[in-house]
Amino acid sequence: MNRRRFLLDLLSASAALAVAGPATRAFAGDPAQFAAGLERHPWMAGWRQVSAEALGPTRATLEGRLPDGFAGTLYRNGPAWFERDGFRYEHWFDGDGMVHGWRFGDGRVVHRGRMVATPKFEREKTLGRFATLAAGTTVPNPLPIRNNDDANTANTAVTVIGDRLFALCEAGSAFELDPDSLATLGPVTWRPDLAAVPFSAHPLVDRDGSSWNFGSIAMMGGNGLLVWHVNARGALISADVLETPEPGYLHAFAMTDRHLVFMLIPVDFGQGGSFFDRMRFASSRACRVAVVDKATPSKARWFETGFTTAYHFGDAFERRGRIVMRTVQHLDPDEARSPMKAAMQGHDGQSPKPTRLVELHLDLKSGKAHWETLAGDGIEFPLFDARTRGDRPARLYAPTRAGESSSPYFNAVAMLDPERGMREVHRYGRDILAEEHVFVPRRGSTKPDDGWLVGTLLDHARGRSGVAILDARRVAAGPVAQAWVPYTFPLGFHGTFAAA
Amino acid sequence: MNRIRHALALVAASTVLAASAQAATLSVDLTGIRAAKGELRIALVDANGYDGGAKPVAATIVAAQGATARAVFADVAPGRYAVMVVHDENGNGQLDTNMLGMPTEGYGFSNNPNVMRKPTFDEAAFAFDGDTTVDVAIR
Questions:
Q1: Is the ipTM of this complex over 0.90?
Q2: Which of these, A92, A302, A353, B11, could form a disulfide with B43 (CB 3.0-4.6 Å)?
């Protein structure tokens, strides 16, 4: 490996993260404009700044009954702090992360939320203003930063390894949190030379309990991926550099029992503005797909396939010399650079973003790849039961839209089983915003898809945030239990369930 | 790679002060020190010393005991200088970086240039012509 390739200059990390030079223009949203939009469109509560640095613990009002043996905590993360000193981020991804815990057990549901105390959040709290390069908003007069972790918002996802809880973001370290109080313990250094190297937001847990993840070195101004492998107790097994033929963007990945699959979306960078201002998905070029044998993480077999914009992947499986990987394609690559941008600015009228479920076929014999379109429009955040056999497709569980809705966001959850032509939907209602639904195995069961979906909701008409539990095999029947707290907090992105 | 590390390596090398006829005192006020441990290695360099082409004009070490610290260089001749600071938190004599070459310990430059690369000498340089205090914010 030639490390010289990776560094164009000192702190290219920060350069790649945001502005190429001193910010001279502020493209911020206006808090007053957002407040006015929220007044007219209560569904924008999903993008309203959280009311406090810590929420709860609050015993939620339970409707229905928790399933027997259902106990544990749904942890979730998402941007929650959008405004300081009359300045509002214009990009959803810029908000500082708040981690939530929904604790289930003994017939009770208790909610707690807490801002992740990153160096960025703490520094800006003291200053009373945003003062850090952001991914999607041009922040005026940013302070110098030591490295990318000074700009880390820890706002995208959570993972639990062993009994340790981590808040994740794609451009920096994992931040460890106390799993009970959600207090921030600090950034994790898995090995001294890997301090501040990105540990991105979508680690995948293997059948032995170990976690695979990647960190984008391209995002740090270089080229390549760092492939992480952490054991079930949270110790680093390996960290290998996978060189890539050209820089590309990726937010997540997929894996089979034997392989990791990384899809690099071609991008170009213009001048000026934040990372997402400058980045353009290059739809005229092919995606490059790395198929990496887990036994040799620094080596890949590369495939080329038609351009696709995707953030999130479902399952991947492998049979008869072929890997099949599912993902949610965004049909408007430009819109995908700033999801819910209008809502962030308090503007109504944004139509739901068009997506479709697609399947990438990678033929390991011929080296050819092609896409197939599956039934499954208008979804995002697909999850599945990781116990599904490695040689067959999994059922996917994802938020979607159904019927009338007062917002351009999801208001329903779907089970999709394209191979068997099955689809079940539960519509929460017109005024409910529905988020990712995590699959939780039924206690004592080993049968794939025998379990529960646990998903979070925002009921803007009644001013409450909540959580629903559905039987994964009877999605259309709706929740067996829902629990609500008498306040709302902004929507998040991703969660994980830690069984008690 | 690691140009900052290379340049700041000289900071680690303490040298004896060079006195001159019209010498005066340069004070360096450090702020933003994040950890009350290890040493602050402070180098006063001229244009030749900035990129490692010559030894620092002067260098000193101050223990990191709080969020702020002060270093004093006595008998500094008039001239154009820059100050470079490394916070060697773990006392291993260098500015630690990760595998990508990004600093993982604190550092700073005179004028506190807000650039996302190593500043140029001109960006960090100041004219010294009598007793002066410069502020360096550790990043």
A1: no
A2: B11
Q: List pLDDT tens digits, range A210-259.
A: 999 999 998 887 789 999 999 999 999 999 999 999 889 999 999 999 99
B3-137 has which CATH code? 2.60.40.10
Q: Give me the total of CB pairs closer than 8 Å, taking one residue from chain A and one from chain B.
A: 77
Cα-Cα-Cα-Cα torsion A137, A139, A145, A147, nearest 10 degrees, comes to: 10
- Touching check for A24 and chain B: CB below 8 Å? no
Q: CA dist A38 to A33, A161, A408, A462, Å? A: 9, 38, 14, 14
> Per-residue confidence at A350, pLDDT binned at 50, 70, 90?
confident
How do the domains of chain B map onto residue ranges? 3-137
Closest to A498 in 3D by CA, of A9, A104, A22: A104
Contacts with B136 from chain A: Cβ below 8 Å: none
Check: pTM over 0.90? Answer yes or no.
yes
User: Other CB atoms closer than 10 Å to residue B16's CB: what's the count?
Assistant: 8
β-strand B132-137 against B24-31: which pairing, if any? parallel
Q: Do B1 and A6 touch (CB under 8 A)?
A: yes
Asked if A16 reaches chain B (Cβ–Cβ under 8 Å), the answer is no
A425-445 pLDDT tens trace: 999 999 999 999 999 999 999
